[in-house]
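Incident log, support desk, overnight shift.

02:14 A customer reports that sequence design results differ from what the structure should imply. Their input is reproduced verbatim below. On-call engineer (initials T.W.) acknowledged and began investigating.
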């Protein structure tokens, strides 16, 4: 009779194994001395996060161990048999021998009762955890490795925060010192980076004698590209970067791409639009603020442009880069949609938003203003106008990966985050489904169901049911298309200024991330790989050797792709400043996900069309010979239009309109036509 059992049935056995792992984690982290108080909730959060990480490898190991027992847990053993069974638990061979010598008999326990016997007699015996490791060496090695990587990542985060606490207070907490770490929220982003995760850190401090709390986002990867494109250069950030730029710990301060476009053109355009849309002075002022491009506070640490390649491998130590970002709150928290989709999901959202008394507000938002609700359709115009501008900018900068998790509304303004996959040569004309992804996820996913609903806008007026303001509504679509046109013409008009900004800001020195192919469903494949690895027939092979063999094979595959790319390809080019990321095994990664990830400078040849010339090299204090390439090119212009719009926009009005229309269609495909709609 089969002794196979599901992961769900073996789940009760998880607690005993995990308790040992949890104790090791907390012993490590609590042994450190921190310059601020760690609240008890933080330790609970860290334990819960580890439990999520280890759930599958622990349960799969236990399922295999339970299967090793055969029918034993289902039998009523007499005293002598039970004593002999307990003596056999140290090794697989002893358990197998005991099973072979046990007379067959009818089962007296069901699955649940058998699992309880297994927990009590096998796992909870005096040497239960020690013997589990000897019976299942591969599985427990995987479990220990997830613990090591998770604990190392959390320890590194706390160490960085402790060292950076003065910078954090200065740039994010209005100069008030950190007194407590009240909470840590562990996100599910990028589980393939050796155990590192994006974390939300809730700091406690005192402002004017009053206890306050503020959330800051910790990102364990380079955020310099986000800072250069969408950063808000507050006085504190500018001063800090200027004071601390020596040694490469911070970027050299300069206005961001969004700040520059606002200064050059959009502030004036926004003023004119606000005057056209409203006669009320207060409303006009609010509209102007909503039309400004979405910038937020970003503080890069050890930015990629300031790193030096390792002299032996020539690889960039990109894992040393990290940063902190302003938390973009979103409220009210919308209802759980479950498996609902389409009209049913939208109906749930609209019913909830129609009853403000039910709204769940974010206490860390600092206000009770909703981020996704307007009471006047005029106030919705800026959001769609800005969405359009962002579509143009994303296409021009060859931005990919702007899926629904990287789009959000905050204070009625669209924000895009996680811009590291930028300046990447696309497979087709930028824009549309393989380009910015913005219109795709605005149209299809969020308000009509799915996991996220934080990039949609709704109209709620007193006494009226709530209404979804879709990107494809005639008035909304018009603003999107006009926003695309605004940004495209603005960037074309100010090409020389943009080229100067690229040179002055060091944009060509930035390190960008490039994944060579799609990756598919990470977690499903991870579970599948874990199961195959644990169930491999070569039981006697040491677990560490097995894992190292897997890692070596993955590394060689990734490295070979790099070598095969050739010096003239857009993957490699002639720029020696690069890094190669290949995921270490952390229990949520897997052999088949052998997708090499390259980091290299944004100024590498063929990523964008640089119209430059070789000039006399002007060395900088932090330069090394390997880094000199980016400074040899004086960028006198930048091809902003890409591919089909490579040439300068024509002066002829008819041709200009046609070319603009083609671009809008490529960025915002299948946009409805709205004849006769007022602007």
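02:41 Re-run completed on a clean worker. Output:
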């Amino acid at each position: 009779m089969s002794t196979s059992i599901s992961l769900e049935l073996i789940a009760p056995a998880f607690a005993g194994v995990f308790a040992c792992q949890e104790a090791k984690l907390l012993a490590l982290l609590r042994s450190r001395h921190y310059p601020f108080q760690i609240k008890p909730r933080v330790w609970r959060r860290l334990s819960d996060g580890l439990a999520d990480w280890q759930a599958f490898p622990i349960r799969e190991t236990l399922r295999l161990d339970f299967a090793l027992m055969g029918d034993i847990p289902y039998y009523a053993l007499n005293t002598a048999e039970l004593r002999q069974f307990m003596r056999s638990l140290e090794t697989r061979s002893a358990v197998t021998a005991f099973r072979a010598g046990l007379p067959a008999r009818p089962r007296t326990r069901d699955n649940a009762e058998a699992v309880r016997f297994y927990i009590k007699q096998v796992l909870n015996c005096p040497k239960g955890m020690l013997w589990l490791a000897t019976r299942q060496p591969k599985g427990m090695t995987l479990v220990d490795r997830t613990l090591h990587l998770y604990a190392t990542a959390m320890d590194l985060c706390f160490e960085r925060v402790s060292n950076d606490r003065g910078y954090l207070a200065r740039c994010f907490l209005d100069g008030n010192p950190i007194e407590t770490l009240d909470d840590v929220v562990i996100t599910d982003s990028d589980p393939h980076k050796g155990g590192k995760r994006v974390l939300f850190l809730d700091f406690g401090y005192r402002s004017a004698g009053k206890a306050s709390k503020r959330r800051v986002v910790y990102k364990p990867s380079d955020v310099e590209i986000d800072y250069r494109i969408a950063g808000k250069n507050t006085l504190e950030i500018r001063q800090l970067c200027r004071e601390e730029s020596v040694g490469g710990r911070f970027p050299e301060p300069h206005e961001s791409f969004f700040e520059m476009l606002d200064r050059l053109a959009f502030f004036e355009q926004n003023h004119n639009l606000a005057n056209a849309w409203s006669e009320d002075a207060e409303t006009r002022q609010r509209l102007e603020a909503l039309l400004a491009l979405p910038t937020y506070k970003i503080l890069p640490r050890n930015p990629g442009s300031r790193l030096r390649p390792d002299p032996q491998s020539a690889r960039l130590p990109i894992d040393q880069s990290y940063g902190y970002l302003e938390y973009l709150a979103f409220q009210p928290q919308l209802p759980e949609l479950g498996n609902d989709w389409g009209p049913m999901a939208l109906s749930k959202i609209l019913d909830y938003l129609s009853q403000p008394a039910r709204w769940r507000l974010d206490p860390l938002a600092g206000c009770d203003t909703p981020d996704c609700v307007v009471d006047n359709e005029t106030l919705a115009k800026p959001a769609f106008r800005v969405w359009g501008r962002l579509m143009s900018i994303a296409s021009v900068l060859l931005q990919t990966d702007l899926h629904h998790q990287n789009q959000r509304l905050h204070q009625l303004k669209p924000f895009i985050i996680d811009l590291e996959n930028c300046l990447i040569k696309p497979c087709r004309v930028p824009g549309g489904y393989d380009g910015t992804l913005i219109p795709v996820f605005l149209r299809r996913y969020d308000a009509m169901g799915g996991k996220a609903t934080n990039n949609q806008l709704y109209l709620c007026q007193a006494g009226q049911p709530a209404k979804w303001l879709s990107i494809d509504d005639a008035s909304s679509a018009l603003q999107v298309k006009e926003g695309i046109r605004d940004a495209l013409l603005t960037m074309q008009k100010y090409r020389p200024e943009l080229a100067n900004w690229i040179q002055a800001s060091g944009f060509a020195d930035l390190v960008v991330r490039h994944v060579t192919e799609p990756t598919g469903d990470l977690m499903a494949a991870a579970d599948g790989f874990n199961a195959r690895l644990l169930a491999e027939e070569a039981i006697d092979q040491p677990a560490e050797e097995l894992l190292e063999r897997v890692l070596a094979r993955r590394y060689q595959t990734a490295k070979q792709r790099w070598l095969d790319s050739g010096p003239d390809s857009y993957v490699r080019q002639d720029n020696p400043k690069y890094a190669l990321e290949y995921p270490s095994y952390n229990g949520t990664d897997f052999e088949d996900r052998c997708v090499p990830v390259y980091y290299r400078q944004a100024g590498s040849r063929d990523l964008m069309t640089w119209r430059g010339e070789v000039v006399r090299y002007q060395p900088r204090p932090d330069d090394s010979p390997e880094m000199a390439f980016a400074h040899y090119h004086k960028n006198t212009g930048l091809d902003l239009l890409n591919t089909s719009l490579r040439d300068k926009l024509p002066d002829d009005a008819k041709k200009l309109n046609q070319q603009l229309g083609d671009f809008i269609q490529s960025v915002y495909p299948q946009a409805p036509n709205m004849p006769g709609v007022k602007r």
